[in-house]
Amino acid sequence: MSVELYGLEHCGTCTKARDWLNSHKIRHRFSDYREHPIPPATLKAWAKTLGWERLVNRASTTWRDLSDAQKAAATDAEWLALIKAFPALVKRPVLVNDGAVSAGFSEKTFAERFGP
């Protein structure tokens, strides 16, 4: 099983997700997307699965600080430009395993995804 976790190194939620995976002995690769930006094609694929609304963290300070025009992004190109300028907009963490993509962390959802 290939497990990849994308987020920010100093994000508390990402740390909790990484700790959960480690405590359940689930090998994974972590990628900080400020240091290693996510390719636009990958972001588009995630958005196709999740939708931009679920992929973008609209509860974040970064989102609240955007202008109304920026918040009105509607096309893939507009979303990609926003995320390129503000990587912290991507909800954290993004988990990819065996072709499945999810955004966010809760112990319950990780337990359901990986079994007991």
Description:
The chain is of the alpha+beta class and 116 residues long. The chain has one domain: Glutaredoxin (3-Layer(aba) Sandwich). It is built from 7 helices and 4 strands; from the N terminus they run E-H-E-H-H-H-H-H-E-E-H. The protein has a 4-stranded mixed beta sheet. The protein is globular and about 45 Å long.
Fold topology:
Elements: E1 3-7, H1 12-23, E2 29-32, H2 40-50, H3 52-55, H4 61-64, H5 68-71, H6 76-85, E3 94-97, E4 100-103, H7 107-114
Parallel strand pairs: 1-2
Antiparallel strand pairs: 1-3, 3-4
Summarize the structure.
With 116 residues, this protein is α+β, with helices and mostly antiparallel strands. It is built from seven helices and four strands; from the N terminus they run E-H-E-H-H-H-H-H-E-E-H. Helix 1 links the parallel strand 1 and strand 2.
Quick tags:
7 helices, Glutaredoxin, 4 strands, 116 residues, globular, alpha+beta
CATH class call: Alpha Beta
Helix content: 40-55%
Integer tally of domains: 1
What is the overall shape?
A: globular
